[in-house]
Every structure is written in structure tokens, then in C-alpha cells.
Amino acid sequence: MVSFAGRSSFISSKSCKFERAVMAAKRAITIARRHRLLHIESKVRSWWEEKSSHTAYMNTLTEISTMRSWPFKTGSKPYPSPGEAIRVYSADATLYTIAKANISADRVLVPNVRVTLSSIVTRLIKEIEWMEEFLAEDQPSMRTGSSSCFADRAFENMINSAISCGDPTKPCFRFLQDCRDLYGFACGGIVGGMNRDLLLHYMNVQTIHIELFCPHYADYVWREVLKKDGCVIDAPSPTAPRLDLNIYEASKYLCKVIMRIIKHKNITRNQKRSISSCLIYVKELKHQERQELLRRFQKFCKDKQTFPMATPSWERGVVEENMDLIKTLCVLEDLQVLSVTELDDFAKADPLFSQLYEKPPSPGSIIFLARW
Question: What is the layout of strands, in order, in the sheet containing 334-339?
Fold first, then answer.
């Protein structure tokens, strides 16, 4: 008969073997991605050699490969030299690491260069894999044409901000990736809910922008993935209007509403209760407060933009426009948007009236009452 201690030892041994197998699989994936990026660089350089192009870039790469140390502060852990990084992790990952750290080189500390290089390789290859998967699939259910919903406008606005407000000498590759992921989340995680033309625009902007920091990667994506003619370095720089602060502020406000509801649902889930419907009470800013915001807005903006935040019921309008989105992301059956300053709406809080009365929302914020 097997003792309890023997069983525990057996289970522990099985667990250790499983963990080692998982770690080995992760290492294999990391190595495969690194090899693919190195293969891409080899292929792209053969293109350049045929055209005798990118001479200045290759000279810069030669200088970096002879450097004995990195041009930024590093931790005490062992790390490869720039030349070793180019050979093992790719030139693009090495250049991106330097560009990212040199944004504020006097303060940046990269504690583990190997981890940083590996994470960049992973991001680059995962982006290619996402593009290839997206372009390979037939998506008849996807929307096309101009931005037609709030999620479209918010995503397009963030792309425009990277074009018009971003510093071209600073990489914003990860910023655009995060915006794309947030856009997918806002569309309910359903590919068919996204706008195909907008995603193609994102791919073009992302690829042209990253060319300065990862030229091999960008040229490969431009020709092989996006099927564009010529070299990406010859592509015209994308242009866009400046950041629309109206959409930007509305996006922030909407995210705050959604995260408040999700956080509260997680708390009640731990209490073994499930929220099925929700009353959202908003309290609009007072007229004087809105006028002060309008004055600051006009002082900040050189060009004249409309400012709906200075109009009554701005907060309520943002939530009402995105009720379907909120219900989908927060998994709600019913949702109502009410004003705390209207008596009829205030009365709808019964039997939760006391909660609203004791702690009403402050101007510009929300409070929601859950129903089970």
C-alpha cells in the first residue's frame, strides 16, 4: 500500500516534469521565432544587395557590431555584446533595443538585455503572424468603408495621434499594437465586428513607422505580407489630422465606466452573486465648470475643434452611444443610463435609493447600481 508521503512525492515528480515540459516548449517557440527573424534579415539583405541599397544603414550596423558595450546603462546580469546580439537575436531587435533605451539614455536602465531582446523578437514575429492570419482568412462578415462606430473612431484617432503627435525618432510600435488589441476588445473580441479597411490602414502605418528601427522586418512585411510594390523606405510617410481630443476624452470616460462595472462584477462573483442588469447614474458638470474646460481646451488647441464636453449631458451621451458595447463587454442583460439630477430618473433607483442618496456621483463621474 502506497503511503501518503509516497503519493505526494509521486505527484510532485509529475508536476515537476510537466513544468519542465512547458518551459522546454516555450524555449522552443522562442528559438523558432528568433530563427525566423534571422531568416527574414538574410532574405531582405539579398534584396538590398541586388539593388545596392541601404548602404548607410549597413555602415551603421557595422559600427554597432564592433561596440564592446551598450550605449545605455545595464544591470549586473550577464548580457551579450551588441555584436553578439546582432548575430543571435537579429539586427532589428538590437537596433530597436538601442532606440527604445536612448529615448532617455541618461536615466534608462535595462536590467537584463537578453530578456529585452527576446521580448522584442517575440513582438515582431507575433505581429507578422497576426497579419498573415488576418490576411489569409476570408472575412465576409467584416465591415468596410469609413469608421462607422465609436470603437472605429477611437482606434483611428489613436493611429492619427501616432502619426501627427508622435516623435518619428521614438518607436511607438508597442503603443500601436496595444491600441489594436484594445480595438479588438472593444469590438467584443469578434473579428467580424472590426473594420477591415481600418485594420489595413493600421498595418500600413505600423510598417512604415517601424522601418526606421527595424528595416529588415519592415521591408519584408511591406513586400511579402502586405504585397506592396517597391521598398518600404520609398513609401510616402502617412499623414493624418491632429489628435481629436473629443474622441480621446470620450474614450477615457468610456473605459472608466466599463472598468468600474467589471471590477464590481468580479467582487460580487467572489460573493457568489451574479449581476444581470445595471443602472448607471451620471452627474454632468455644471455650466461654469464646462466653460472653464472649454477655455482650457481652446487655449491648448491651435486649430478650432468643436468641444462636446462643454455641452449638457455629454457624459450621458457617451454612455448611451455605447450601450451595446458596454452590455457585451460587461456581460449584462439590461442597462439603463440615468441622470442623478432628474427626479424621474432618481426615483428609478428604488429599492436601491438609499445607496444613491448616501453617495451620489460627483460631477463628471458615475455611480452604478447593480441588480441580480
Answer: 334-339, 277-282, 366-371
